[in-house]
Structure formats: C-alpha cells, structure tokens
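INFO  loader      accepted 1 record
INFO  loader      residues=310
INFO  predictor   begin
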Amino acid sequence: MTAGRGIAGLYGPGSEAWRLNREAFLLLGAGPRALLLQLAHPLVAEGVDQHSDFRADPWGRLQGTLASYLRVVYGSDIAARAEIGRLNRLHLRVAGPVRDPVARAIAGVRDYRARDPELSLWVHATLVESTIVAYDAWYESLDRERRARFYRETLPIARGFGIPDDVLPGDLAQFEAYWAAMLGPGGPVHVTPTARSLVPTILHPRVGPLPPGLYDWLMWPAVALLPPAVRDEYAIPWSPAREHVAAWLRAAFSFWGHVLPAPWRWMPPARAADRRVREAQRTGAARAPGAARPAAQSDASARAGTIPPY
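INFO  predictor   done
INFO  writer      dumping tokens
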C-alpha cells in the first residue's frame, strides 16, 4: 500500500462518491429518507427497537450514523477500514427474537441478526439509492453513466460489510431490479407497528430547547422523496399543502446549494479530506490530481469479495 493510496482513502478525489456526498444540503433529504426506508424493513426495525437508544435520542443516532458513513467515504485508508471493522464488531451483538407478530408474519422468521447479509444489503442499498434520489432532486439529474459509476464504487464497501457476491447486485441494472423487488407488493419491505412507533422520533425533531413538533416541516422534503407506498404504510399525513411546502424547500435547498461558496456548503469531513490530499500532493506523497482510484478499482478486484487491497 502506497502512502498516496492510504491518504486518498477507499474512494479518492476522482470518485463520484466524493463528489456527491460532500454536499451538506443533500443530507437533509438523503439522511432521513434512508433511515425511514431502513426501518421499513421489519427485521431492521426490530434491531433498532431492541438494540439502540433511538427513541431517547434519534438525532444522536442519525448524527452518529452520518459521521460513520462520512468516515468511510472521506477518511484515510486506515480510518475508513477501522470504521468498517468497528461497525462489523458492533453489529455482531445486534441479534434477538422478532417480537412484533406482523414482522414475524412478513419475514417468516422468529429471530434476526444484523450481520445477516440480506439485512446488511438493504441498509447499504438505502444509502446508495437515497444519495442518488436526493442528488437528482437537490442538484441535477445524474445520467446513467454517473449512476452506474457511483454504484460500482460502492461494491467493495458492501463486501467489506460482509455482503457476498451471490447476494450483492453486481451492477446498476441488477441493483434497480433488486430495489423494485424489495419494495414490490410481494417483497419483504413493509412497515410494521414497531416501525410506525419509531417514526415520530424522526418526523418531530427537537431543535435545541424548543418543543418537538415546531420544526416538523424540515422533514417534509425527505418525506416527499419516499416511495408513495412506503409513505402510505407509515400513515404519514400528506396533503397537497405539504407537497407544496416540500417542493418550495427543495427549490430553496437547490438554489443555495448552487450559489453558496463551496466551503460553506461542503461537509467538514469532505473539506478535511481535500486538505489532506492536497498536502500529500504538495509533499509528493499522493498521486497527481485526476489519477485517484475509485473504490471499484477493476473488475478483478471488484470480484475479490472485500475492499480491495492497496
């Protein structure tokens, strides 16, 4: 492993992942949307309900998830791999009985474990798909090539979380087919009473000392991006008025996301990664600009089963 590759991390500055995830406004849509989609899987909802302080501190959990995700995307090689290892060890303890009878009926199992590759894939898929959907809504519609490249970049990361090739969709077309099947009427993603009981902690955020509910409208753009069937299963109140407010906020986020100077709208971990790579380039430790290796590397390394060695 060269010093430059270690400094650039698992994706690097030439990747779609670095370009897309740096936009702070994107997280206002992608973060809550991905979380709601994750909980829509009956077994994920069971794990969150039984093994986290989500009800007491949902935004603390969301902030922790965001920090972890950005560490994998923008951290150095050592930091990103350490974070993946930490999450894998943490999830080994997340297992237990399926208590919700509706979840048992949908999933057809009596126990769950977070390290189940199928569950890991669903969590991974919600992050990938929500990033694309929110970027399309907030900034610009990604063309087919950029979508495919972004998805390819995520494959070694998915393998690092223990998702094997016989479970992991191999390309964008297979991923889209998987997504449609998961959300279809006969698919496994259906909102349970347990998931619905968790939703108020997401949709009624507490901001500082102000009472919860005062800033519910901040969640409406993310709710608007949900698949309508999922939104209906959550029984989230929705109306033309809320759709209008969500569209107005989405337009405002898009406007400021285009006109604000980059340092004001980029996530701090992304700015730190840029500085790290620039300093390495200045001292001759990193590769030249534009030569950064995206996470997918090559077909051979993409089939290796884990994050490719450097």
